[in-house]
């Protein structure tokens, strides 16, 4: 291109050279020369060793595109500033999704999975805060603003390519304020060594950022066992299914994890992933069909790795689903003890605490989860739900406004506003949101308005599919015995909605608090007493 400097043309020419001896040995060397040009220095001389045989086929267009993006500074990602880079003073690193260099969009799950794996290893470093920017393109703020608001000191970015059983992960750590590299490097090897490669990346980032590792952390980030590449790949596909809500995605995830356990029967992460998906199928689809297999999978995971945090956490929620409250909390706390930097274990513990009626603690745990991963899957709604479940009116509305600013395309914020207004008796505000957002008035809403005929117009069809919502309608209309009929039906069916009994006590079940049938039901399922006092922060 005529507007590109001669130095850049030289770099691109070397990247595309026909003679392998003249090409760049790896992506890190290529990027290093691009940085030199940005800083006004000459690129390195052509004294490179022969590139790895499997790196050669990388498309020429990829390197050319990287060069043009780098020079023209698309998105401001590499904007140069006068301050010299320094490895000191880094306490928080933002991790961008690794670029998929395969040219196959079907491999995006793999690059995202590797990114998340590296995030998980970095999160093990106690002196470092790590923030995932894998969803930054969904955030409604300019990238620079987002980085500043998250308190990031440096950014980790790069690319991943696998071919013929081998993998290369190119990473670069950049100063947030200068966008100049602290280091850049390729990490490569056989796919079966991916656990060790991920550990090496995390260890190198810590060393280059002058972050001191404890002896235990350095041991944890040392060489790891080899894995079956096919099994690891299946688990990455399963994790992708977990991240996407819905039965169809969960069933796909189950198929991947089951296949992984068949190919590697002692691989604990595969069993843990399978248990996690089965657990939510038990809660939201069919307890009888999925609870037994969920427990079996969790037991197998713990049999093969008793220090796998996610396996303990999932066992905890399974015990809770069976109303074994004290045993459940012990397992959930064990999960946190093993990995307090996991969003999932904090979210699951928060969910448990909210249902146990310990709302202050539940909100605190949700905030810990968000501190671990403020932009991760679920962050757009989970803390909002906790405030709503505790009937923290002002806090819920403030959190909705905050998350709407971050995630403007997430389409449920107006619905959440109605869920805040209706229990508070703010019918005019709720109706105004319904009108503005075009939200229909469901039977429960008519019942709150005292419109009995409208509320009961479709009660038979509602009762056939959702006894919990039906109980809510009858309770709001003052028909306590009919309401209790359907509450008991949800309990008998082991519906996941019945777990929310303590939450409902603050709203539509408040007038039934002392009803003998409800008292008996709480005793039968060992529901803890709701902690007194204002739960709102």
Q: Could you describe the 3D structure shown?
A:
This protein has 537 residues and is an alpha/beta fold. The chain is 55% helix and 7% strand. The chain has 26 helices and 6 strands. The chain has helices spanning 6-15, 27-38, 60-72, 108-122, 143-149, 194-208, 215-220, 229-243, 247-263, 268-284, 287-304, 309-321, 325-338, 343-355, 359-372, 382-389, 393-406, 413-421, 427-437, 443-448, 452-456, 459-465, 467-476, 480-492, 501-504, 516-524; strands spanning 92-95, 99-100, 129-132, 154-163, 166-175, 181-190. Strands 1, 2, 3, 4, 5 and 6 form a 6-stranded mixed β-sheet that branches. Helix 22 packs across helix 23 (467-476). It is globular and about 85 Å long. The termini are far apart.
